[in-house]
Amino acid sequence: MEIQRGSRLRNFHQAKWDEEAIFELSTPGERGIHLPQVEQDISDLVGDGLSLIPASVRRKTPPALPEVGQMRVLKHFLRLSQQTLGADLNVDIGQGTCTVKYSPKVNERIAASPKVRDLHPDQDESTVQGALRVMYELDLFLRELSGLDRFSLQPSSGSHAILTMAAIMQRYHEVRGEADTRNELITTIFSHPSDAAAAAVKGYSIITLYPDEQGMPDVAALEAAVSERTAGLFITNPEDIGIFNPKIADFTRIVHEAGGICGYDQANANGILGITRAREADFDLCFFNMHKTFGAPHGCGGPAAGAVGATKELAGYLPVPLVGCDDGEYFLDYDVPHTIGKVRSFYGAFPVLLKSYAWILSMGATGLREAAEIAVLNNNYLLKKITEIDGATSPYSGGKRRIEQVRYSWEDLYRETGIDTHDVTRRLADFGFHLWQSHHPFVVPQPFTIEPTESYSRAELDEYLDGLRHVAREARSEPETVKHAPHNSVVHRIDDSSLDDPKRWAVTWRALLKKQGRAAAKIRG
Amino acid sequence: MKTVGLIVNPVAGMGGSVGLKGTDGLDVVREAERLGARPWAPQRTARALAALLPISDSLVLVTFSGVMGEATASACGLEPQLIGSGSAPRTTAQDTVRAARQMVERGVDLLLFAGGDGTARDVCGAVGTSVTVLGVPAGVKIHSAAFASSPAAAGRVAASFLTGEITRVREAEVMDINEADYRRGRLSARLYGYLEIPDARRLLQGAKSASAPDERTAQRAIATALVERMTDDRCYIVGPGTTCRSLLEMLGVEGSLLGVDLVRAGKRVGKDLNEREILAQTVSSQCSLILTPVGGQGFLLGRGNQQISPEVIRRVGKENIIVVATAEKLSSLRGRPLLVDSGDEEMDSYLCGYYRVVTGYREAAVYRVFCGV
How far apart are CA B98 and CA B104, in angstroms? Predict the structure, then answer.
């Protein structure tokens, strides 16, 4: 029997447990597992165990870990899990640029099987032929998808992959004796901010191009930006506003003519898989996110993996080891003449690579293209429907369709009602939705970014649309309801004023105690 | 309990509907009335005040009697405390100044004023940055950054500030154009000063966004980049604006926020110079010119820095112009180019093209400068 509801909107109410940090649950002496006493004959043989460890690396004080019983640990994390939202719980299309698609659970089971779980990266190559084959074939799939010639699967995330591209670019110029003069990296304001940030970590000065009136990166600005100082260009296409840059070949040409390297940030590849490739746009380097685009959970839902590809000319700079195959035998290939070395321990986040390998095999070549086409179709369905909402617009569109996501604007709504994009975001939380705005600075005023991917059904897209329409209506009829949202969440408002204050921010428990002037020992009781 | 001051310029905006391009001065008000203009500032103010109604129990609203605030506030259902009255039969700019000063003395937490650039100038002249203010856009000319983008937005930002949701403030430009010139077809805007407004950009951010550095942090990053490339043998002509001021602060010298200063070897060698003084002091050495776009329209030259004349620019040379702006400021231009209006068309077209705008430490944008003003 079908459940009849007046609206597709759900009345979401977040669980609230007022949960402490696990460090605050600590009781001295409490343990998750009490180990049995060591039998006499064993201790006779190995001593107390500690003396086997050289004195120089032995801790003088025990680590300040929380001391919590097993059952309390379980409850703690179950409670926290009830306070979260995520792709497996809600219609998670409001986290634009993140490509939050469905991650098939069967792939989790494959990755969790003892055959995978019990592998050790120090095992002899002859005993891990299956794992090496997975990595080798994944490399071949990505070559096909990009047109480039060889991939390293070592980086642990998209940003890490960008950092790897920057290292390769730097090494390339170093080998040519130009590393000192070529110290500028060009990117665009609508490319992912990591393109600038990761290159800055490698010491590059960052030159950012702003869009022209149509939202395209400005070719004339690029011509003015390149010089003998240009190390390269890192750019996304489509950019984060969902517009594909048809002049991309001009961009790579201009940078090549100036002696730079072109790196393609393919974090936004979900709408172009099997349709356009890095090779045809004449990129030297590219990377894919094996999480998100290729079905493994997005970074925050588990570890990530970024695969960096290079043309023949730059393959000799990739991190070692690569995976090779010689007459049916797979091996770790350290023969990479100009290699930048390792960017991570061992060979990459293998379980993530395996999940994406399984995903690609299950989709097949036509399936990948179909996924891209459906992602684009879903996006343009939303584009049409969202721009029909009074108060929402899609700047730069000029009636044109977008690829896989759109950066919309609530500016009209804001001018009319004073309800801004943050208010809308908070109100949507009452219906179990998340809505993300944009990277900073906000180039699109009052922005919000939506990327529906291929995973969501029409009914789910409509449910989300109902949420947007509802809040836009409320902004006029009941602005206070919107302004004081969320009404059903654990924390009403978060004070984010410390986020850009190094004196107050803390990313670890120890840092928090230090900045609050509390001693770790006190907490330990 | 928070106290909010309200000043309504009752004639603001009247000139606009009848094509007068402004409402500065009594003669223009009379002319506007003769042409049938009706007051519209009260209804704009009412739109903003609507957002304060839900928090009225925790607010004391102070204002002047009648059209300067009382009438609108009462009509909205608020109960204002009156601290004075404007001139009869017509209120004047002096009334705005007097009201603003009295509100500062009264210790208001926020001063809400409804008007246009002329009103913003009057408030700025009266209180400077001694109190946090916010403009409700109700005038014909709105070039100043001290205004919210709409009356409704002004109300929301005011409510968020008064309830403590917004805690940060920032300095916003007060610009005005000369109305008489404008009626004759010439746009000559000036930077009059700065008002302190709530920093509405600092509201809660989404889960994915890293925090945006506040404007001061971004300006300090720019200043660091500039100091690193400054050499002792050059002189630096430093234009007006808060971004340029942060450079002088980093050098430990006191500059003039609205004027042009001269720096050599880390020392200030001239403050608030006019064109003749700049030329006189830059005869003997190579110079660089540090400019930041002023106001919301992106003018690099010709708005508030006319002392940097075509002659000064010829002396410096285009290649020695260093443009600085925070990424936030560039983004606020919404893709519009930077503008130059030096008063010399030949000079303007010479200045056109793409510039490297220093946006941070080892960060720059390539941005277009356009002269088709």
Answer: 10
